[in-house]
Records
---
Amino acid sequence: LQMKRKLLAVLLTCCMTAGMLAGCGGNSKEPGSAQPEQEAAGASAQAGTEAAAESTGENITIEFFNQKQEEAAQQAYRNAAEEFHKEYPNITVEINTVPDSDKVLTARMAAGDVPVVFHGKPTSQAFFESAEAGYCMDLTDQPFIKKAIPSLLEAVKSEDGKVYAMPYSQNFMGVFYNMDIFEEQNLDIPETWDEFMELCRKLKDAGIQPLEESYKDTGMAGHYRGGAMAALFPDGALWLAECAQDPEKKPSDNPDYRTFAEKAIQIMDYCNEDVFGIPQTQAMENFANGKAAMMIYGSYGRGTFLVANPDLNLGVFPIPGLTKDSGLVYAGVDACFCVSGKATPEEQDAGLKWIEFLSRPENAQKWSDTEGAPSAIDGVQYGSEGSLPMLNRIKEGKVREWKAYYDSRFSDTEAFQGLLMDRDVDKFLKNADEVWANAHVSG
């Protein structure tokens, strides 16, 4: 893990990036509340009651800077804050959700205005540099840390083994599908890319729209790009990282990059006609209400789909690779909680209580059920039987970690969005090469 970070986490994107899986959202501040950290695992209910009684002092309000933009995620946190306040009526959690949250948080940290609790993204060296500079409290010895799934906890540790961010949810890019439509059409889950395209053809021939997508936003196009690259060009992220380190290399040097581009654009024959005009939220509602059989999206979308249609029989499978066993799932740790190293001791204590409350398995289960993402808390269940193809793939370890391998100067996301629009592979490769060349010159 340490060698991997040193090799691949090169000048990464914003130190607190919202990740490629952040959706579009509005501006909101939601009052909620907070609760005490339990003692060690297995502490009695009486001990918890005593801890609550001892905590009742002067009222305090702490900010929770939320980078999960989807309405389902915001509702999940509002629900948790309401329950939290019942245990700790003297602690109010103010939930703050803003557009461009990664940029806002980075600017606030640079100005020394660090929220008491905030979503961190320990997927880059820049995050750990910020933590070591005192912006994030060391959580290594907090009892709630032990509630995280061990492999996910390992993924967020710094090189010296410290934990500055409590993992709370996982993410993945996959193909969500309407299980009722699949059953009615007698369709099987595709295991290769060619099978996936054949399935789309069958749906189209049957008069059913195969895919509902929204690539109006560059970020949404980037989400698909990440998932498709992991499936079709499993070493793509590693290759682009090499190109970012070596100015003698350019993306198009690897023929697999072209193959990825050629295959990725094939879905455009099966998407909704307004794919570059429809808002993300509308596309999600359309899929949820049966206007299409499938939607390529992140794990966090599950909650929003079910809010739009509680009766939706929803499943999800991996974006297929070129062969049955070659593709990887674009997945990893998503939401992580940090406590400001710049906050007062009273604020830090309240922040730790809030994280402890969220990390209890029963509360994490409620959050996951509402938000829709798989939990990073051990013992929490996710989805239904229709989710097993995806979950089994992840359990097998066939994953490309959800992390950036090169900084924002080395990004083919805009070029990829252009590829989806004009389907010109040669132009895409030329644009990507130019991005890398210009980034080396400017660097």
---
Amino acid sequence: MKKNSQIPFSDKAYQEAVEWLFVQMPNYQIDGQKAYKPGLKNITRLCEFFQNPQEHLKTIHIGGTNGKGSTSNMLASVLQEQGYKVGLYNSPHLIDFTERIKVNGKNCDREFVFSFIQKLKTIPEDILPSFFEFTTIMAFEYFKQQKVDFAIIEVGLGGRLDSTNIITPLVSAITNVDLDHQNILGETLEEIAFEKAGIIKPNIPVISGEERGPIKKLFRDKAFEVHAEFIDATEISSKFKTDLQGNYQQKNSRVVLALAEELKKQKVNISESAIEKGFLHVHQNTGFIGRWFQFSQNPLIICDTAHNQAGLEMVFHQLDEISKHKHMVLGFVNDKKIDEVLRILPENATYYFVKPAINRGRHPKDYENLLKSSEIKFKIFDSVESGFQEAMRNCSPEEMVFIGGSNFVVGEFLEKNLEK
């Protein structure tokens, strides 16, 4: 890549730099499978180019199909309550790019992002990193500069070949395994579990939140093979309440408790009070939104970023427990198996199918025949906002609105409607 002359920082320059990054780098969230670059060769060379900032960090690695974001944010909140400075790397972002990289709940500094993108333009042309590889090295460098006490790193996709797998963490965790990204990770749970198990490293404890016996055994066997302690979080009971809503958070809480206990074994000071307060103040401490996020009370509006079969089943099951009539604003990306989603849709609902405003966003007209054959009451919209506004027009005070089906649907909705 060619070197650029120094460009002064401004909000406009920042926006242009981020737009350049999205255009130049293959981005899985936008472009899908063609942007996925498995393996650690690129990230290894990127880290070397930037003097291996990850080697200066105390990291915790969190993988799994569902619950990675909730688990990592809960743990960050606990550590912050103890007084530690905590870096948190999550993906994707919902509204602003800087959400991906946080320190003590504060988004990454825009001027740092801008400056780092300028440095990207000086890397050797043969490295050709993906968007996620570049954001990963950006997170490592930011956490190093910020001198965080701990950096919690969420796996992007899979585990074994994910660029975050370059780190040597204090402890790793795998929340669970379910069918997702089968075109990349494999068609069966066992194949996907094999990829997730790739973050299990020699002599580094691993915590599993997986409940299925065969998958749990796969993780246990891999841990035994590399002499890593295996900790089964499903055997832990939790007395702590969390401000993260959603019944599924009970499972994530057990993984966080196991992580805290393991860190304590490694002489990290974490009090019971920090755990209790950390669980109760996740939103306040980390700014985490998107999972069973109550946008308003009257009418009740709930957003959730669940997008794979297992995640949607848990969310839809909880919606079924709410007696209110539901106005469901749903949108999906191109690789979503719509027929599987239709089989688990909540009853007592009116549906508004929308197109997410990204390249991978699937227009509901593409699956309109499936919708007609399902005998649900529905309308089709070209955008998230138009679908939401129609839902609001039809929603009475005693009814509710749900927005979901994709990170991008929730992100678009929040960007348009969340008070800045």
---
Amino acid sequence: LLVILVIRSSDSYMIVSGSEIKVSVRSAIIMPKSKTSTSCRLQQYVLEFKDTFTSDGKILYCQPCGKAIKVEQRSQVTQHLSGNKHKVAALRQAKKQPLISEPVPSASIQPSRFSVYCEDLCRAFVSADIPISKVNEPQLKKFLTKYSNIDTPDESTLRRNYLPKCYEETLAHIRSICQNEKIWVSIDETSDSTGRKIGHVVVGVLKNDLEISKTSFLLTCQELTATNHMTIARLFNEAMQILWPSGVQFDNVLLFLTDAAAYMKKAAVGLAVSYPKMIHVTCVVHGLHRICEEIRALYPTVDKLISNGKKVFIKSPKRIEIFKNKNPNTPLPPTPVVTRWGTWLAAVQYYAENMDGFAAVVKELDKDDASSIQILQDILSDSVLKNDLAYISANMCFLCNSINKLESVGLLLTEAVSVVEDVKKKLNALHGHAAQKIQKKIK
């Protein structure tokens, strides 16, 4: 019995018949399809679709659209040609409004006008603090497309392809200024509209140059899992690694500025081990605000006047009209926010200066219209109210100016110390039961 075995290897077929072995080359049996090189395929597309594509042998470049396209399969080329964006671009080119005016170099593909436009658009939105989502507004997109003669990209395109480059450029600029320089670091925590805890890190250079010392940078902004000393310390270290990716310059961090929260002070104590030259300073303006809160707590009648005074005229055009008719040259009562430094004392000064005109309007209003009107009418009959307003306005409202001075950019250290010393001197000169509590608070 004759047995024939056919063994297929990668390169040949081996026919085994008894002791005889015959080898036939695979190419003689099966002829493989020859693969066309990439450059040849690109050249075929250029010849086939004249005045549409150009190529440098590596990339197929669509002239009307101003961008390179994928050519792994022929279907990708035909799909691009049948797309609406290409048809619109080709129509513009036919009307002698080309998107690309420069020829494609043979050595490499230069950045297209479209990509340059997208990059500049993204950078403009970021620098102007305009949300990138606004680019999807139909009227804005139509306006930009009409006057730039380039299709305006979608928000997702800017975020995915161009926003990271803007971030890297900004970060490189911050690093170039802070490299090998002594710096200060400030950290604060707040809550966003959805209730998440967000930590912000701001840095600046400590240098004997007023222009440079005025400049500060928001280095990073991160969500915190909790508000405690561990998350603040972790945020601080991560920010320094972002600033100095090749190695944290521990000796160059000289000043750490925060509020006087207990977890901030505890975080600073722990960080002092790694940053030996760092001094922790709590915000003195925040301290002055705490004194303003103490004043507010000591005068509940004045506080009730301010809180109800703004309620009476909010969303009431009729009462506003009455007020303006009675007091044409007087502004409406202010609407202070207790968490905004100094606004409560500014409201006290307003009522001290315009008490008579304000009281005349409130007395004319119907107390049955709103509970705040009745409360105000009862308060205005209190004889002590005017005395309290006059006392606070004369002796404590200067704190508003002190806070504004300390908040100004570029204030010299000697000037800041002088402002604080002046506050201490004026408050310590006061007399009375309330003055003693305020003096205890400032200590």
---
Amino acid sequence: MMNECAQIVLRVQPMSTEDCRTTVIEAISRLEGVKTVNVDLTSGVVRVDGAVGDRELVAAVESVGRRALVVTHTRGVGQSSGPRAAGQSSSSSWLKLQLFMKLMRRQVDCCGD
């Protein structure tokens, strides 16, 4: 287990049903250090917050019959040095996530039927 909090974004396939979402969430949630798991079924994107390593996450997802690829990994999330104003998020992490989502939409638009 890692000591430093991180925000890890994974691309997981195949995922198309609520059962898929539940299976992936349960597999990842069992890992020590995981705080939150969010799954977007439409894009296959899984966002994990906590003190857990990439290899552990990929192994957990693959143990339930899915393929996983780490897209981004941001260390130090949630360990700010001071209070933030209400509604303000980590701009770097937010921008990375927004860029990733734009790229995913382009890929779907490009490769869709």
